[in-house]
Amino acid sequence: MIKNSQTTLSCILVILFGFVLFYVGTDGFRAYTAETARLYKLMEQNPTLPHVTLEDSNSRTYPISDLEDKYLFITFMYTNCGTVCPILEMNMGQVFNLLPEEYIGEDIVFLSISFDPERDDPATLAEYKSHFYNADGETWRMARIEDEEELDQLLETFGVIVIPEGNGDFGHNSAFYLVDRNGVLIDVMDYTKMDEAAERVISILESEKGA
Amino acid sequence: MNQFIYGLILFIVLALPPVSNLLESIMIVHMHMQMPLLVVAGFFMGHYFQLRFPEFFQRWNENGIPGILLFTIIMIYWMIPRTMDEALTMQSVQLFKFISLPFFAGVPLRDSWPKLSLRGKNILITGFTLMFIGMGLLYVLSPEQLCNNYLLVEQITLGWGFITMAICMVIYLAYKTFINEADYE
């Protein structure tokens, strides 16, 4: 009888252990993929934009801090991408459309950053930009970061993982990144939910105006 | 004792950085080869622990159920997409993988399996079959990349690996159900 109760006790201990293991391993049953875990962590850390130098589709070179007095709506892509990036950029264009015109360029700048600087020179970016109706090169800019160290640092800070596939393509995670006027990352949003992203941006900008 | 040595050698070989890096570079090999081999290593080493601490296993795992529960929990844990990613990016998770799979899954499986009734064994295999079908469908059908360190195409391969394993287990269960072994003896 005593032996039996010990086995029951060990059953309970094992289940408790399992519960704690899963609780810790999934951030309290919330994050089952590294991507969701990354987003939760990013949201808690609120990292700031590292210093990077952009070269945009108009061949202008400037530090990203030049844009920092405005909110930045950022995506990461490469022009040769045939799968996710066109959708990502199209969806970005929809968010652009959903925002009231008064904010565009005044309070917020859209920025598509290429992580393939070797091929995405200003001419290529300009050509790619032309596929997106709203991308005017001013209020929605496309740019590359030529300095590899700077690019890597930005990708790491924002948790963007890029895996070269060997044939010139990359596997990568995609999201909308929102950076505030102080260069602090304040939100990472699902790139397939344009309405939600637009609402979020509008509510932030409106509350700022109200204040 | 021999078994322990074989298990230990297997464990050490798997833990060698070039070996583990190679196995982890391919998603399906990571989950369906490296991880099971770690369990196998623990399974072999388990014999030594059984001989060394018979009292412990007798007392705390009398009917095999706690051990098999622990085994199942550890196996499910390592099927979560996130844990595979983190094993690659975080040293502590990698260390936990190399400890938990042999010692918390392999060893208890060794001790528990013979203690389970036939029914218990069939329930366990059926459970794993259902789980593998579920995981297989998840990895095959998910439009999103579930692991940041592996490409979508590898994920689909892994999903089919799961489904293949499930099919094998279904065949085994059918064989156990429909074939009377005594007829062939």
UniProtKB/TrEMBL annotation, chain A:
Residues 43-210 form the Thioredoxin domain. Signal peptide: none annotated. The keyword Transmembrane helix applies. The chain crosses the membrane at residues 7-25. Keywords: Copper, Membrane, Transmembrane, Transmembrane helix. Pfam families: SCO1-SenC (PF02630). SUPFAM superfamilies: Thioredoxin-like. InterPro entries: SCO1/SenC, Thioredoxin-like_sf, Thioredoxin_domain. The keyword Membrane applies. Belongs to the SCO1/2 family. This is Protein SCO1/2.
Automatic annotation (TrEMBL), chain B:
The chain crosses the membrane at residues 31-51, 63-80, 92-110, 122-141, 156-175. Keywords: Membrane, Transmembrane, Transmembrane helix. The keyword Transmembrane applies. This is Uncharacterized protein.
